[in-house]
């Protein structure tokens, strides 16, 4: 069967490498290595199975006779096999379109199998599709490992948006997914610039120009971008811009994948391309037959943390743990590879710095023309993270199994397995329970109840259950458990078994029941109850503490009863004493009220006298001020009189001068008249004037005499007035002195009255305070009487309450 499907591979390799014998031998060796490491199956163009290698048969669980001649639909679900999508799938393969990706397939007995596979049409020399070869890897446990880049690119082209540009950004072509996403037809975009999808600000920016300059230099770009679809609708895409290079290594166009995809679409579908795809998706390293490293790809170097220069020429043992590389098995391992034996599995390896690494790997000897191995190619996947998770999960499950009772059930409730903790708790052996139903551990009533049926229906729906459960061990013994029933789901999320984790809490439940029984008796007042039966170690201290508490409570109740009786008697005596005190206090309060009233009347009289004295003092003060002002006026009048007298004397002197002037004028006028008479007729006018002057002088003299007489009379009267004013001033001084004396006496009397008022006020306040205190004493006496009555009632109530308890002393 191997040779049957190897021939087209050889033809494909021959077309790639020519007919050089050495190259053909190496290609044959690599194909043989693929046969050992991959699951391979051949179909005709209609999907009928022609052959399959051992790896494929092992993965799917079939023998060659069970599948040969059958249709590929044997491995898919019925609904998918009847779909137009499935028919299109085979139609595309028949037209020469390969397909690759992750596929869910159905193995023997309906087992779900996930594979990473490529379906590769094989052409005749005339270019016709003659058959389909499928290369697959079982990824049921780790289905995210990819072995075929060509299939991935095809899948991307079907499911994602793809567009091509020249180095200036002019659109060359776009697939349907891209056109649908952007809302354009192909005619609307081809020949346009990429800038039609960006915002105007971005289009004019230096950043945008630098973006295309970078792509034109062959630099890869990948990020999340904001783009504009038809009508200005915003679109955010996760895209990679991939410059495509010609044979001279010069970029000539850019392919954009609108997703986080960085691999270019493989155009060569032959097996050389498949081997290259494996190298891109997996860690690959080549060794000499003695284990010396020839080369390693970037994936492998990234996995172990070394550069190529650090590993090339060194031995594989640099990656092996010390215990492995010094072992006999390790030496035998390389001896077996040197003679052409294939190895695959999970291996522990050591990366740079001693870092632990777990890989899923195959070691594939490569044979020369003579069938002699000349190197070893290793394909590996890093499974460190998954391995560590599995170890962690296994450790946790093992720890749980050591500390708890664990039992597993099928979804119908039949027992699959139980650990020793569970079997010891229930008193059974594994053979006694395996294959039987869970209902063997429950009571008959619960077993036949709708509730029990619902319990298993919920578990079958994948619903978790956790609680305390009553179960029955061997011989009908009651067992209480704290348990959780945990549905376990397969890769499709469907429950396929139930794992129960349980802890035996029977002793705890029994202890709680005993303690509860004792507490119920205690709640009914029975202090004679106690826990005599020894409990589980966890509750023994609680039992002793409860018994001690009951004993102490019994003593307290007895003491309280005794004390309540004493309090009751004392309360009666206090009540009698406080009642007598209340009567005497009320009498004293009445007397103080009368005294306070008398003092209030006296206080009012004294305050009135004080007010009268204050008024007299004020009036005397006003009289004093007025008398003092009168004395001041008298002094001013005397001074004015003296000034008038002095002025009168000055006026008299002036009038004497005027009188003298008038006499001289009269004499001159007389002389003038004599001279005028002598002059005759010429002096007549002058004589007349002289006569008038003489008359005026006489009149002035007469008037001055009268004025002088009046002034002399005024001076005499002023002298008399001055004398009277002086006497009035002296009298006013005496009056002022007398008023001051009276005012002083009135002031002294007012001060004494105020002091008397203050004294009476203080006495009155003291009496008032005494009255208040007496009133308070009376109130307190009443309160004390009421309190003693209440205390008597409470003491009697306390005695009544204590009688509720049944004590040992009773």
Automatic annotation (TrEMBL):
Domain PAS: 40-70, 162-201, 284-322
Primary location group: membrane
Coiled coil feature spans: 543-609, 763-801
Residue spans crossing the bilayer: none
Ranges where the T-SNARE coiled-coil homology domain occurs: 722-784
GO molecular function, one term: transmembrane signaling receptor activity
One cellular-component annotation, GO: membrane
Keyword Kinase in annotation: no
GO BP: chemotaxis; signal transduction
Protein's cellular compartments: Membrane
Family: Belongs to the methyl-accepting chemotaxis (MCP) protein family.
Name the UniProt record assigns to this protein: Biofilm dispersion protein BdlA
Organism of this sequence: Grimontia marina
């Amino acid at each position: 069967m191997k040779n049957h499907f190897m021939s087209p591979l050889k033809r494909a390799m021959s077309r790639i490498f020519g007919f050089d014998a050495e190259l053909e031998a190496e290609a044959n060796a690599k194909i043989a290595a693929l046969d050992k490491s991959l699951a391979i199956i051949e179909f005709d163009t209609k999907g009928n199975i022609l052959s399959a290698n051992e790896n494929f048969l092992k993965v799917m669980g079939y023998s060659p006779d069970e599948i040969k001649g059958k249709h590929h639909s044997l491995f898919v679900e019925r609904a998918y096999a009847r779909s137009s999508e499935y028919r299109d799938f085979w139609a595309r393969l028949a037209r020469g379109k390969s397909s690759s990706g992750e596929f869910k397939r159905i193995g023997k007995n309906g087992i779900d199998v996930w594979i990473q596979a490529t379906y590769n049409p094989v052409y005749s020399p005339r270019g016709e599709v003659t058959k389909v070869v499928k290369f697959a890897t079982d990824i049921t446990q780790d289905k995210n490992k990819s072995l075929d880049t060509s299939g991935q690119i095809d899948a991307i082209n079907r499911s994602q948006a793809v567009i091509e540009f020249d180095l200036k950004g002019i659109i060359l072509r776009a697939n349907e997914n891209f056109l649908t996403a952007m809302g354009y037809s192909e005619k609307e975009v081809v020949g346009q610039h990429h800038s039609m999808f960006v915002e105007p600000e971005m289009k004019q920016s230096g950043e945008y120009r630098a973006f295309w300059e970078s792509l034109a230099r062959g630099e890869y770009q990948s990020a999340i971008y904001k783009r504009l679809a038809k009508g200005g609708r915003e679109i955010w895409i996760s895209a990679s811009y991939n410059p495509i290079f010609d044979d001279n290594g010069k970029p000539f166009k850019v392919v954009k994948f609108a997703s986080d995809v960085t691999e270019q679409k493989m155009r060569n579908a032959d097996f050389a391309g498949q081997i290259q795809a494996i190298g891109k998706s997996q860690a690959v390293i080549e060794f000499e037959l003695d284990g010396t490293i020839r080369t390693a790809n970037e994936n492998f170097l990234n996995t172990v943390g070394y550069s190529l220069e650090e590993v090339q020429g060194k031995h594989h043992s640099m990656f092996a743990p010390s215990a492995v590389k010094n072992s006999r098995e390790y030496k035998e391992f390389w001896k077996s590879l040197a003679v052409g034996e294939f190895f695959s599995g999970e291996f522990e390896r050591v990366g740079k710095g001693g870092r632990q690494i777990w890989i899923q790997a195959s070691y594939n000897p490569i044979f020369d023309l003579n069938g002699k191995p000349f190197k070893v190619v290793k394909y590996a996947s890093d499974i460190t993270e998954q391995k560590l998770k599995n170890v962690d999960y296994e450790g946790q499950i093992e720890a749980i199994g050591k500390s708890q009772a664990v039992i597993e059930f099928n979804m119908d409730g039949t027992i699959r397995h139980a650990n020793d903790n569970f079997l010891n708790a229930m008193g059974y052996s594994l053979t006694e329970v395996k294959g039987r139903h869970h209902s063997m551990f429950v009571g008959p009533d619960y077993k036949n109840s709708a509730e029990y049926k619902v319990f298993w229906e919920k578990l079958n729906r994948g619903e978790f259950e956790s609680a305390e459960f009553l179960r029955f061990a061997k011989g009908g013994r009651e067992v209480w458990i704290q348990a959780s029933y945990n549905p376990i789901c397969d890769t499709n999320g469907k429950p396929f078994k139930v794992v129960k984790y349980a802890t035996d809490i029977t002793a705890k439940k029994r202890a709680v029941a005993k303690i509860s029984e004792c507490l119920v008796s205690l709640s009914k007042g029975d202090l004679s109850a106690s826990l005599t039966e020894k409990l589980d170690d966890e509750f023994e201290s609680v039992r002793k503490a409860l018994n001690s508490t009951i004993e102490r409570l019994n003593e307290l109740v007895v003491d309280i009863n005794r004390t309540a009786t004493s309090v009751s008697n004392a309360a009666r005596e206090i009540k009698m004493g406080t009642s007598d005190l209340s009567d005497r206090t009320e009498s004293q309060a009445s007397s103080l009220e009368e005294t306070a009233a008398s003092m209030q009347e006296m206080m009012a009289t004294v305050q009135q006298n004080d007010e009268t004295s204050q008024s007299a003092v004020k009036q005397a003060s006003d009289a004093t001020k007025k008398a003092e002002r009168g004395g001041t006026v008298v002094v001013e009048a005397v001074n004015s009189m003296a000034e008038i007298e002095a002025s009168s004397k000055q006026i008299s002197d002036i009038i004497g001068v005027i009188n003298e002037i008038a006499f001289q004028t009269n004499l001159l006028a007389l002389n003038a008249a004599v001279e005028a008479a002598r002059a005759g007729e010429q002096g007549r006018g002058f004589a007349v004037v002289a006569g008038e002057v003489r008359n005026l002088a006489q009149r002035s003299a007469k008037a001055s005499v009268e004025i002088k007489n009046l002034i002399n009379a005024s001076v005499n009267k002023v002298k008399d007035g001055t004398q009277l004013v002086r006497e009035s001033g002296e009298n006013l001084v005496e009056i002022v002195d007398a008023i001051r004396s009276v005012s002083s006496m009135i002031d002294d009397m007012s001060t004494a009255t105020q002091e008397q008022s203050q004294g009476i006020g203080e006495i009155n306040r003291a009496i008032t305070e005494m009255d208040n205190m007496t009133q308070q004493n009376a109130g307190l006496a009443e309160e004390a009487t009421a309190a003693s009555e209440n205390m008597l009632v409470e003491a009697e109530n306390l005695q009544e309450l204590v009688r509720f308890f049944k004590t040992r002393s009773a």
